[in-house]
TrEMBL record:
Transmembrane segments: none annotated. GO terms for biological process: methylation. This is O-methyltransferase C-terminal domain-containing protein. Signal peptide: none annotated. GO terms for molecular function: O-methyltransferase activity. The keyword Transferase applies. SUPFAM superfamilies: S-adenosyl-L-methionine-dependent methyltransferases. Keywords: Methyltransferase, S-adenosyl-L-methionine, Transferase.
Amino acid sequence: MALPQCPRLSKENSGAFSAAHGKDVWEYVKTNPEHSKLINDAMACHAQVTMRAIIDNCAEIFKGIESLVDVGGCNGTTLGMLVKAFPWMNGINFDLPHVVSIAPPCHGVVHVEKDMFYSVPKAQAVFLMSVLHDWGDEECIQILKKCIDAIPKDTEKVIIMEAVLDEKIGKGKSLKDVGIMLDMIIMAHTTNGKERTAKEWTHILSAAGFNRHSILKIPAIEPVIVAYP
Ligand SMILES: C[S@@+](CC[C@H](N)C(=O)[O-])C[C@H]1O[C@@H](n2cnc3c(N)ncnc32)[C@H](O)[C@@H]1O
């Protein structure tokens, strides 16, 4: 199904990827299935590593959640692992049509195609991994507002897995430095995307309408940010 033009706020076509290809990466992959497969396979590999860390260390945040929508969930690898580990949940894997149309079937997961700048399917909680770093602050606030609209008022949460950069960059060797490398990759591949510090996360979460959030460190590059509207 063809979707109407994306209503996202920032439309300028800057950044290295856009300069090379004449469009941003998400527009480019719509008509380049090989590049789309490259990204989907890479994200599925990343999900397999990262999901183990969240499943083994953060099971309590999924307790009581009967339905979870994974926004920008790619081919469903993430939700497939979460639903298998926490079988009381039903999963909604939500992504653009060219991604969802070739996603493999997965027990306990339904695939839904749409554009997150329009709306997010309703569920008790939202999961977002490696999505917000693809976008600038204004676009993140737009996406997060759609996530808040999708969940029941006052009861549920948005679970975000993204790098949180250390504000004291360059001190010591640790996995934190990987965040800087990711920031460079995102700078090259997206128009307004970036990795964010804890202060920057606080800014966009409160601008989107969240009352509070906590950052849980796990043995992965990305900690888990749990945000409550
Ligand atoms: C970097 S990938 C992350 C995939 C997955 N969350 C993971 O970590 O394995 C970003 C995902 O956002 C999806 N996406 C981009 N723009 C979107 C939009 N407007 N609506 C829904 N999904 C979108 C892409 O198709 C892609 O699957």
